[in-house]
Amino acid sequence: MLLSIQGKYKATTTGAINMTDERICDFGLHAGEPYSKLPACFLNWMIETKHNKQDIAKTELSRREQAVSASRDLANSSTL
Questions:
Q1: Rounded distance between C-alpha atoms, residue 27 and residue 72, angstroms
Q2: Apex CA 1: angle with CA 57 and CA 62, to 5°?
Q3: CA distance 37 to 54
């Protein structure tokens, strides 16, 4: 994966660089990993310590909650 200055570019398997909405962590143990792959406890730590990138952590946790909710809604509707 390729990390740009803005943290919004990544290399594809073919080596081409595409613009994505995926943000890449640029610090600590998880540097270079997409926020979508970070453990929830790390994202919660960012929020609890008021890290300067806590907004990214909040957005990612909210995205995960919405995905779980949508999955449950789909499962419930398919059993009717």
A1: 34
A2: 20
A3: 16
pTM as predicted: 0.68
CB 34 within 8 A of CB 22: yes
Residue 18: name the closest of 4, 32, 5, 30 by CA.
4
Q: Which two tokens stand for residue 15?
A: 């080596």
Residue range 24-28: average pLDDT? 96
Residue type, 19: M
Average per-residue pLDDT for the chain: 82
Helical ranges in 3-79 per DSSP H: 40-48, 54-78
d(CA 32, CA 27): 8
Helix (H, G, I), strand (E, B) or coil at 73: helix
pLDDT of residue 36: 97
Q: Give the integer Cα–Cα distance in Å for 79 and 51.
A: 42
